[in-house]
């Protein structure tokens, strides 16, 4: 077997770097798709919970209890003046 040349070593390095870049791109794409799927599940589940709360007093009560658990100010502000019925008067 012949000794590796500087050119063959450099070519192998480039291949490794390209493979690393492809792996990073694939991992980033997978993470993006996972975040989108998670957001979609949350939106769908939220819609189902709101629909149940608007149609059933027991669900409205349960969702109200859950909303009391919101502890971040920025999250609470998103619901300021909002009700399950959608209007500020309830």
DSSP summary: helix tally: 3
Order of helix and strand elements from N to C terminus: HHH
Radius of gyration: 26 Å
Average residue-wise pLDDT: 91
Write the layout of secondary structure elements.
Layout: H1 6-55, H2 57-68, H3 73-77
Helix pairs in contact: 1-2
Short synopsis of the structure:
The protein has three helices and no strands.
Question: What does this protein structure show overall?
Answer:
The structure is a single chain. Helix 1 packs across helix 2. By secondary structure, this protein is mainly α. The termini are far apart. It contains three helices and no strands. The chain has helices at residues 6-55, 57-68, 73-77. The longest helix is centred in the middle third of the chain and has 50 residues, at 6-55.
Labels describing this entry:
90 residues, 0% strand, 3 helices, mainly alpha
């Amino acid at each position: 077997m012949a000794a590796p040349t500087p050119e063959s070593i450099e070519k192998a390095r480039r291949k490794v770097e390209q493979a690393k870049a492809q792996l990073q791109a694939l991992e980033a794409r997978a993470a993006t798709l996972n975040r989108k799927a998670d957001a979609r599940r949350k939106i769908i589940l939220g819609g189902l919970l709101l629909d149940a709360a608007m149609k059933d007093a027991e669900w409205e009560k349960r969702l109200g209890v859950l909303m009391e658990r919101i502890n971040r100010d920025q999250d609470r502000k998103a619901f300021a003046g909002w009700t399950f019925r959608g209007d500020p008067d309830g």
